[in-house]
Write a structure and sequence with these properties.
alpha/beta, 9 helices, six-stranded mixed sheet, two-stranded antiparallel sheet, Rossmann fold, elongated
Length: about 300
């Protein structure tokens, strides 16, 4: 039985690799490369000076030794460290269509991991609920990426609740060098939403100063609009709290939508105040096009 389960896991990981490799086409990979550039220059070689070269690049030691002007040539330091911080709390198991929020988060993580691999970047992983469930330090290589995909898809969390402060504190503590950090979550904050958001915003700002922090907000259409289907019992996947609503009442549906819109706007304001780039994704929309649009938009802003 254990061997059968292992084979099934490997088959699923391979399926994800094949599908994601197709999604990470030249267009997406090129956008990724343009947006996430290296942060330094590496010495490449010394060559003879050619009229028009920058005289500030002249290597005077080699010039004196050979009697012929030479310049230093540098190449961009491409290698980056990418850290995927993925929410695996109970609320991610919800999905009103073909897939759940957690499945979309897994797809996002896979696409970003393979994009990073194509650019020879290192990739690490943090899976969290209301504590860090798993930490995999950043490395390179296909086998490492496949291990990350396996963990994202099949890791069984011990916690059901969400605490976004935990992974932010963790990355600030363990990452000694600046890295590109993707925080992938549905941002279902515990307790009173506005109070939780006010505690989260300063931590987002601190982390964004230390790293390049990008928030990816994954939601489901039913979290924004209720269908007209009569009485429904809604349960909070993290706290277990239940509430009954008469969805045939237009006032109930309007109130639900207004509350969802208010939280959405508050979250966006907090992200902008913290200086973060953010991307909204929905389980009923393909993630690849949203990523491509986001990369192009970020590239334009950088220019």
């Amino acid at each position: 039985m254990e061997t059968q389960i292992t084979k099934e896991i490997l088959r699923k990981v391979r399926q994800v690799e094949v599908r994601t490799s197709r999604l990470v086409n030249d267009s997406l990979a090129g956008s990724y490369h343009s947006v996430f550039k290296g942060r330094g220059m590496n010495f490449d070689e010394v060559r003879e000076y050619v009229p028009g070269d920058d005289i500030r690049a002249i290597d005077w030691n080699v010039t004196a030794r050979t009697g012929v002007p030479h310049i230093k040539k540098f190449t961009e330091e491409r290698e980056l460290t990418i850290m995927l911080m993925i929410d695996i709390s109970g609320s991610g198991d919800f999905g009103s269509g073909a897939g759940t929020k957690r499945e979309m988060m897994a797809e996002l993580g896979s696409i970003l991991a393979f994009s990073a691999r194509r650019n020879n970047d290192k990739v690490g992983l943090i899976l969290f609920s209301d504590f860090v469930e798993l930490y995999v330090p950043a490395q390179k290589g296909r086998s490492h990426i496949l291990r990350l995909i396996r963990e994202i898809l099949f890791f069984q969390p011990q916690g059901t609740k969400t605490d976004l402060l935990i992974p932010l504190d963790f990355i600030n503590r363990v990452a000694k060098r600046r890295c590109v950090t993707f925080l992938i979550s549905d941002f279902c904050l515990p307790g009173v939403f506005d109070e939780a958001l006010s505690r989260l915003q300063p931590k987002l700002q601190i982390t964004n100063r230390r790293h390049d922090l990008i928030a990816m907000i994954v939601s489901d259409p039913r979290e924004h609009q209720l269908p007209d289907v009569g009485w429904l019992t809604l349960e909070d996947a993290e706290s277990g709290e239940q509430v009954e609503l008469n969805t045939s009442d237009p006032a109930i549906r309007r109130g639900y939508a207004a509350l969802a819109a208010s939280r959405h706007n508050s979250l966006h304001r907090a992200m902008r105040t913290a200086g973060l780039d953010l991307l909204d994704l929905s389980t009923d929309q393909p993630s690849i096009q949203a990523l491509l649009t986001f990369f192009k938009s970020r590239q334009r802003r950088q220019r």
